[in-house]
Amino acid sequence: MIVAFSVTPLGVGEDVGEYVADAVRVVRESGLPNRTDAMFTSVEGEWDEVMDVVRRAVAAVEARAPRVSLVLKADIRPGVSDGLTSKVETVERHLAR
């Protein structure tokens, strides 16, 4: 499964990059395949391990912020691995035509 999620601290002002970095650090230290862009962090793995990473990423932000917003989108597709790369490669192949 691939989960794309965004964790946003609320009540800490406009500059939230330091808080978001705490969440991304949890994801990167998990060892699961992941990718971060300007809006979301995507992580790939089995249900329990991915949801545990999301939970810990939220907790990292929650430890320093009075309120946290979580947006999550999941692609649950058993038997598929390396989706973070293969999905993008498929689109790029179609664009190259």
From TrEMBL:
Residue span, Thiamine-binding protein domain: 3-92
| Pfam families for this protein | Thiamine_BP (PF01910)
**Which SUPFAM superfamilies does the protein's record reference?**
MTH1187/YkoF-like
Q: Which domain of life is it from?
A: Bacteria
Gene3D superfamilies per the UniProt record, alphabetical:
3.30.70.930
The family database entries (InterPro entries) matched by this protein are listed as: MTH1187/YkoF-like, Thiamine_BP, UPF0045_domain
Q: Which GO terms describe its cellular component?
A: cytosol
UniProt cross-references to PANTHER family, sorted A to Z? UPF0045 PROTEIN ECM15
**Family, as annotated:** Belongs to the UPF0045 family.
> What is this protein called in UniProt?
MTH1187 family thiamine-binding protein
